[in-house]
Each structure stands twice: as C-alpha cells, then as structure tokens.
Amino acid sequence: MLYDFCDTCYLKSDCRRLTGEIDNSQVLPDFCFPHKVAEHNLALANIPLRFQKARRDDYKEGSVLREHINDVLDRLLDGEQGIFICYTGSVTGTGKTHCAATILNHYLISALRKRIRNKEDLFQDTPLVYFVDYALLVDTLRDRYSDSYDATLMENAFNVPLLLLDDVGSGKMSDYAREQTNILINHRYSNNLSTIITSNLTLEELSEPTVLGKRVVSRMSDGAEIINFCSSDRRMPKSIFSVRN
C-alpha cells in the first residue's frame, strides 16, 4: 500500500496507483489528491458506509444482475438521460440496495474521471450522485415549516443527476409526504433526471392509498425498468427477473 489510508479509501478497488497504471515515483508523502477528491464527493453523495464498497465484482461474471448493472452504467455513461429503475420485492435482504449502490459508486468514479479529463471542478458544492433513505426523507418533511428544517436533502434529491431513493414506502406516511413524493418523482421524470428506486413492497402494495397511492406509483413506474428481486443471494445467476415497460 502507498499510504496508511489506502485500505479504507473509497477508491481502493478502482485505484490506478495501486494497480501500477499510474507512475507512483512522484507521489507526495501522506497526501493523495484522488483520495481527497473522493472524500469530498463521497460526503456529498451521502452513501452509507455499508454500501460504499459495493462494486460489480460482487456479482458473478455473466450473472443477470451483473449484466444489468453493466447495461445501466453503459447507458448512463453514454449520456442517456431520464433512466428510471424500480427494484421491488417483498423479500428483504435480497440485495436491492446493494445493487443500486453498485451503480451509484461506479457512476460516481467514472464521472469524477471525466471531470478530471475535462479539467472541471472536482470540489463542487453539489453532489454528482445522491443516496436518500426514504424513511429519513419522510421524517425530514415533518419539519418542513419549522426553524430547524434543513432543505439540503430535498434540494439534492430534486436536482442531482443520479438519485437513489432507498426503501420507498418505509416510514410513517402522511398525505403531505405522499404529495411531496409525487412532486419529487414528477420533477425528476419531467426533467429527465435518472432515478433508481428500491422498495420492500410490490408496486401493488405501494399503490395502496395508505402508502404512496396509485398516482405516485403510476408516475414512478411510467417507462421504468421494473425489476423484482426474488432470491436471497445476489451472486446467483437467476436472482431476478425484469420487465421493461
């Protein structure tokens, strides 16, 4: 390892310094510029520690999920906009969030490399990808009109190029939370902002009036790739089936 922090670095499995692709003869002691860039952008991205190391190598070569991840990343990196994906399934622990976070991580690293090539700002104030825990979003909305309300979460969720809205349907729902969810989904849909949604509920369950309701789910799934997770092992080649609307 080049530095003491290499083992815990977000870029460890993707680092070109560690693989020898980049000349290390001129490295500075105790300072790594890519590490600093990654730290800054990872903090903006809000990806939980548990999912920061999610990578496509976690999936067997040729498996359905790995091919799906490769396909989504190819489309995103080719500049396709407005990609909507819904990972659903009532079985918990099937890897829905891990799969979505894998896409977020690879896209973030690729986006940073592109910004380096184009000599763009690497320490910008807004995230390139964003992870939102839906239950936290619902809880935050309860304070919308209080002095303690922080609009950062909603502003990032509205505008980030690639959003992961995790565990949709969790948390204590209200008419206001449903309406704000509809506004968020509609805004991203109308502005061609790519969005990945995960839920431990089926679309039918999400459509219940006590959860999201039919209007929100209709917009959420319109033109989306709906993927139902039905296996507890993300490495199994037949762990999902998908339907393109």
List the main descriptive attributes of the protein structure presented here.
alpha/beta; 6 strands; 8 helices; globular; Rossmann fold; 245 residues; single chain
Short description:
The chain is α/β, with parallel strands linked by helices and 245 residues long. Helices cover 38% and strands 12% of the residues.
Question: What's the arrangement of secondary structure elements?
Answer:
Blueprint: H1 33-45, H2 64-77, E1 84-88, H3 96-117, E2 129-133, H4 134-141, H5 152-159, E3 162-166, H6 175-190, E4 194-198, H7 203-206, H8 214-221, E5 225-229, E6 240-244
Parallel strand pairs: 1-4, 1-5, 2-3, 3-4
Antiparallel strand pairs: 5-6
General description of the model:
With 245 residues, this protein is an alpha/beta fold. 38% of the residues lie in helices and 12% in strands. It has one domain (54-244): P-loop containing nucleotide triphosphate hydrolases (Rossmann fold). It is built from eight helices and six strands. The protein has a six-stranded mixed sheet with strand order 2-3-4-1-5-6, with helices on both faces. Strand 3, helix 6 and strand 4 (194-198) form a beta-alpha-beta unit. The protein is globular and about 60 Å long.
Q: Can you name the CATH architecture? A: 3-Layer(aba) Sandwich
Instruction: Tell me about the largest β-sheet.
Output: 6 strands, mixed
Structural class: alpha/beta
Please give the CATH class.
Alpha Beta
CATH H-tier superfamily: P-loop containing nucleotide triphosphate hydrolases
Helicity, in percent? 25-40%
C-alpha Rg (nearest Å):
19 Å
Broad shape: globular
Could you tell me the strand content as a percent range? 5-15%
Count up the domains. Answer: 1
SSE arrangement, N to C: HHEHEHHEHEHHEE
Cross-sheet strand order for the largest sheet: 2-3-4-1-5-6
Tell me the CATH topology.
Rossmann fold
Number of strands: 6
Number of helices, counting only DSSP H or I runs of 4 residues or more: 8
* Distance linking N and C termini: 47 Å
The average pLDDT value, as a whole number, equals 86
